[in-house]
Amino acid sequence: MSVSAAKRVFALIxxxxxxxxxxxxxxxxxxxxxxxxxxxxxxxxxxxCEGAANNFGCQVARExxxxxxxxxxxxxxxxxxxxxVWAYNTANPAxxxxxxxxxxxxxxxxxxxxxxxxxxxxxxxxxxFGIDHWNATSNTTTAPGxxxxxxxxxxxxxxxxxxxxxxxxxxxxxxxxxGCHQLTERLSLLAGFRYVELDERAAANxxxxxxxxxxxxxxxNRLLGFQLGGQTSLWDRGGPFILDAVGxxxxxxxxxxxxxxxxTGLVTLPATGSGDRTAFLGEVGVTGTCQLTDRLALRxxxxxxxxxxxxxxxxxxxxxxxxxxxxxxxSGDAFYHGAFAGLEYAW
Length: 347
Fold this sequence. Notes:
Elements: H1 3-19, H2 34-38, H3 41-45, E1 67-78, E2 85-89, E3 92-98, E4 106-118, E5 122-141, E6 147-150, E7 156-159, E8 163-182, E9 187-207, E10 214-236, E11 241-263, E12 268-291, E13 296-310, E14 332-346
Antiparallel strand pairs: 1-4, 1-14, 2-3, 2-6, 4-5, 5-8, 6-7, 8-9, 9-10, 10-11, 11-12, 12-13, 13-14
């Protein structure tokens, strides 16, 4: 998915989050609904806040619940890197290593949250999720003994072997704390702080070359900032199933750095750089929840996450000046999307 397409998706779902409350009728069906009639008396007779929504936001599941815990399995894909040629055979430019050749695909992680209701209209939520298993490789066959060019800021030349092996790894970890306020029966607003770690590593080495050669790059991103968002009910007819949408966006300070090296076996030259950047992060998602008992629910949905203003390993070679130990690119972006499924427990 392209960056422009990602922006359109974010705009669309955020519009749904803000506007959905205007297209629903007021309230929910009366307790004579068949599911309501079969709901355990503990739930129906428990103290609750008048007018509180079944899905409050901040993962608070019910109007009578003080605590809600969710645990989800994540299956997210990271968008493949943008096309940029790292190296090529000067005698045959078709023999090249392109960052776009790395295919990350879907990988599993987990997402947990704990929410506490504070009165009838407010709640606080703590959330963590992480995935550290995105790995991709590529192999480019080369004619032995040809002159290779690595596209650094000051180009680096060496002689080829049988192939160029390349690898790319990426991981993402997120922690946040949000406060929620129930604005209407179907719409909640949230504000909070978020901390994100995005770390990557890329490497390339020559196979069976007369002169050993290895390129390695590692990037670090530490995002910290404030975010705003909202959650709205898309479907709630008083039965066991509800559907809601959530959107969050924020501006963050990103303390980013990169460290790259190339080695010939006899000498190793570094290129390092760092800086604070202003970054943007947006997240949207849709969650369906099916109540299994008066405390336990099954949940699942789809999530999109976009972060802009970060240092990516695939972007560093072109700015790395190994002659002067300098170079840094912190203007990259990464897009993630995928499904999740798990359980929700409230009491």
